[in-house]
Amino acid sequence: MKGWALTFVLAAVFALCVGPFYWLAMAATHANSEIFAETPKFYPGDQLGANTAKLEESIGLVHVLGNTLFVAIVQTSIAIVVALLAGYAFAKFEFRGRNAFFVLLLSTLVIPGGVTIIPIFEMMNDLDLIDSFPALILPNLTVPFGIFLMRQSLLAIPDELLDAARVDGAGELRVLWRVVVPVMRPVLAALGVFLFLGAWNDFLWPLIALRTPEMYTLPVALATLQGLARTDFGQVMVGTAISSLPMMVLFLVLQKQFISGLLAGATKG
């Protein structure tokens, strides 16, 4: 009896999680007039190609996807390197003020992101970077949570292991690349998924920093489809489905490393 109850609960949770995505996928294949019809459409329609073509015509879907992918990959890659180097320094090097700097870093986690938007905009404007990819990437290269996660995970690596590599003549960068990175791969993968998700879905800062449609990322471009009098929800559903797809694929590919990294970050240190 208990087994059936658990199965029912899990099935209900699964339906609640997957149901909206299923409806989104089905809605993307219907015309705008059919999406919010009195009788919901839970079966595939024949308008997927037409909706996709209209979306390409409206926002330049391929170009916008390229912008978003470029920003997300570059931002995530550099942010992971910065977090790894900073976490390595906090975990394995003794220097004056280390604890104070780390506490100061952690204190930034409680500052709402909206508070920093105006100062960051002023900085980007003074550097003449508004309406450019660097304006999107540079403010997000230092992620306090990522540095904290790297530091906590690196504390679990024995200093003797690193010292043995140094005795063999390896420099710090070689020790980092040959010894630390292989051990940290699950944590790096978990952090990479978090950072890529944040960069891919970022809306507010690109909305403020970008001015020309040629520079838009996908969330900003999709927001332009919202009209004052009429909105083509067929296009919106296709764009939203396409926006969700890369993250699903990324998680499915890296789910083993992602879960291992979360467990490592939660138990080490």
UniProtKB/TrEMBL annotation:
It is found in: Cell membrane. SUPFAM superfamilies: MetI-like. It is a multi-pass membrane protein. Residues 65-254 form the ABC transmembrane type-1 domain. InterPro entries: MetI-like (IPR000515), MetI-like_sf (IPR035906). The chain crosses the membrane at residues 61-88, 100-121, 133-154, 175-200, 233-254. It comes from the Bacteria. Keywords: Cell membrane, Membrane, Transmembrane, Transmembrane helix, Transport. It holds the Pfam family BPD_transp_1. Belongs to the binding-protein-dependent transport system permease family. This is Lactose/L-arabinose transport system permease protein. It comes from Nonomuraea roseoviolacea subsp. carminata. The lineage of its organism: Bacteria, Bacillati, Actinomycetota, Actinomycetes, Streptosporangiales.
